[in-house]
Amino acid sequence: MSQVIHHDEHYDAEGSKIGMWLFIFTELLLFGGLFIIYSVYRFSNQDAFHLAAEELNRTVGTINTIILLVSSMTIAMSTSALQKKQKKTTLALLGVTLLLGLVFLVNKYFEWGTKFEHGIFPGSQYMLDHLSQGEILFFGLYFVMTGLHALHIIVGMVVIGFAYAGVRSGRVNADRAALLENSGLYWHLVDLIWIFLFPLFYLIH
Amino acid sequence: MQASSHIPHDVSYLDYKGKHKGLLAWILSTDHKRIALLYMFSMMTLFLVGVLLGLAMKLELIAPGKTIMGAQDYNAVFTVHGVIMIFMIVVPGLPAVFGNFLLPIMIGAKDVAFPKLNLFSWYVYIAGAILVIISVLFGDGSPDTGWTFYAPYSFKTGTNMLPAIFGAFVLGFSSILTGLNFIVTIHRLRAPGMSWTKMPLFPWTIYGTAWIQLLATPVVGITLVLVSLERIFGIGVFDPALGGDPILYQHLFWIYSHPAVYIMILPAMGAISEVIPTFSQKHIFGYKAIVASTLAIAFVGYFVWGHHMFTSGMSGTAQYTFSILTFLVAIPSAIKVFNWISTMYKGSISLETPFYWAASFIFVFMIGGLSGLVLGALATDVYVHDTAFVVAHFHFIVFGGVGFAFFAAIHYWFPKMFGRMYDTTWANVGWIVFFIGFLALYSPMFYLGLQGMPRRYYDYLEQFHAANILSTLGSWVMTFGLAIVLINLFRSAKSGPIAGANPWNGKTLEWTVPSPPPVENFEEIPVYGEKDGPYEY
Amino acid sequence: MQHEKTHIVPYRTYLIILVALLIFTLLSVKITAIELGGLTVAAALIFASLKSYLVLTYFMHLKFDKIYIRIMVGFVFAVFLAVIIITFLDYYFR
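Predict the joint structure of the above. Result:
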């Protein structure tokens, strides 16, 4: 950059933390919009939503919840490890987090795949012929919300990947931990959203 | 760490020679002042496009029947006019231009908290603008839904909606990033000693606005994404044929778009709150009341969206709740007007151009605000809903409010931004012509709306002819005034007389640095003492 | 700027929180399997709220951060809740 202004290099951990929190707020309201839609349609199509939720596999949902919770713990621990100057542990914990994120996505892939095989996907003729309007809405929201969530998992993994590279090269260290802390915050946001998605889609019977 | 030492303090941000030359020195600069000017020039260009579209509409309405365009073209013109003016001009307008330029200086900082993110926001803004332009120029016809993109028409119409919707989404993203940057800047970079209660009012309104940008924009973001998905995949969320509820679209759209009005108007009020004490040479009356009313407007304004939907078939409970909340917003707005007037009382007023713009702002803002109450009351709203009355109301607020404040702000801070003074005679002439044109253009629409002329039609009954002619003439006068103002400013930026650091005897921090400000604003970060304050005359 | 001391959270705390989260998850799966009518939603949401409280407080460090971040988070959730309630003023009474 031409304008090398000194606070370009000025490091303000708290400032970037607030920045990250503010970004998390916008993400929360992004999903918030979807939750509003969900609650309105669930309110007006209660029976259809119950019927449609039977189609979803509780076990897979529960396993994915556990995976995300564990990964949330590992990334939280990685910050502690970095502050304790245990670089290897930090990297190992981040690696585990990334791996768990990947497993989550693979599960999701198979889950979606099964739905597609059964003819359940947005705009499918099968849905129009066999399902009620409430069920179509349920699956429309299911695909949008879990899809957007999966997108956030991918983004989170990319961000964690940057943090991983930073820790490895030493750019991210105990004194300049903001990148790691913020990618952790982002990952917890992804977890937080799943904590609500899971009961709302899988646990209505 | 201290890489700054090689930038001499006596070089202004305009003259500074960095690593890049020419245009690159601007579009790669992370200096908040250069980014502000980037925004200003891109907005000015888009604004002129919007003005031309507006003129075309008024010309069409000079006589009943088809004058220069048919129904479909008229639909496209008012849609593109709305999208450009709302999403690209008035929403980002004051925060992106004056917020960027002045917020760091007014709070005693060298730049915003995240300078690179700031430049990135501008690129995002440009990307959004390009997407909207693509939707107009390519595909099967320009968008024709109105700027509100109401479902189900927005995913049924055959026109080129996707780029326009995605463009609005991208513009929203730019606005979120700007808001985020400003909040962190205000929290972290205020000068030592500048407590929250010593912060000038313009930064305060930027702060309130930034919160709305942050919390409201994502809701419309996801809504627009859903409309796109509806168009591409048919997910059914807003499609009544699949069980969806189009009214829910309206809820979600206005959850953003009503607060968006406050995104526009709050910084406008902030600019006015700076201009009035300076030209009255008097401490602002009721500083704390203005701050509180700013936050109250931002907060309550978030919960009034339903007043756009009184005729949509909402439940009665929702209708009167929204109506009550709407009337509540009028209170903090009135407090502000009261404070501005009280500031002038017994002040030593100097009648300079910014003061004229500010005073006319209060005038048109009051007409716009009071006509808003007609729309916020259930019974009268049913009568004037979707008529020209609504168009008159929001142009008084959005154009009268934001536009007049923008011109007040530019005439106020122009000597600071460019280091030169404009020709005050021509500036005043431009103002009065613009003001007269404005009133002639929009006031007849109140009458037309009450008489029952609907909005968004290219045609009308013969009985509305006379008032429409007046309105069209007004549009010409106003544009003429606008041309005088802009030409005067452009000429003066190049060749006006050199202005000093503090031509208006202002007391806020931006007047303590040279005009135009040096690259890093302050040689030494100012320190606020016990007795210092932004309005101590 | 003053040097801000960072609080290092011990691994054990995180482990305890994870166990609590897993217990809540399993409980919510079990309890929603029982037919409770309208209470099922309430139960599921209460468990989700408890879990998110734990994630926010410990994993996201709100407990150890400055108070104003906690206020902001609370404010945002309150705003969202208010928006849902107001939306339901329409749908519930229609």
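DSSP finds 16 helices and no strands in chain B.
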